[in-house]
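S.,

Sequence below, as promised.
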Amino acid sequence: MEQSAQQARQLDHLSSAPAPDRSPFAAFGMPEFGGGHPAVPSEPRPILELAGEEREDELDALSDWVDDFFLSVYGAEVTTAAPWCLQWQEHDDVVAWLHALWLAYQQHKEPDAGLAGMFVWHRDFLTHAIAAIRAPGGPLSACMTSPDRPAHRLLSGPPPSARTETASAAQPTGSAELDEPTS
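The prediction came back faster than expected:
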């Protein structure tokens, strides 16, 4: 059953790959003979800036990478010094860290990253991200600290600043802007 699920994920991944460019000049950014201009690839955006279906699709792709690759290679034992959470997708800060790590991974595994591309990813991205995500006092510190005791708890964040609270209280209900200029 697990093998079938893994094959289904692989098929989804393969079917979502962009169609190869038929132009012999595509590598130079030139269009096909008699054709229009090549499509401009969209720039990746941080996952926390995405919404709706776009965010769900990106989170699904990220989850596939985390579950199928990242954890099997870099998911060291869960301890009090290195907590983890089976519901990591509910921790926005962890999602942001892992998404940035995944984007950097995709960039550094490309041939144009050079022979040291993956070393740079390990040194400059992976080590720092894991240290931040799995720190004893980090975002997952209230979650699973032992594989025998799965746990999940979102820690409360700091309240809004006094300035934000004051501005919100002074705003009439239904106003869209906090600092609208008055003339």
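Confidence is low (pLDDT under 50) at residues 36-40, 175-183.

Coffee later?
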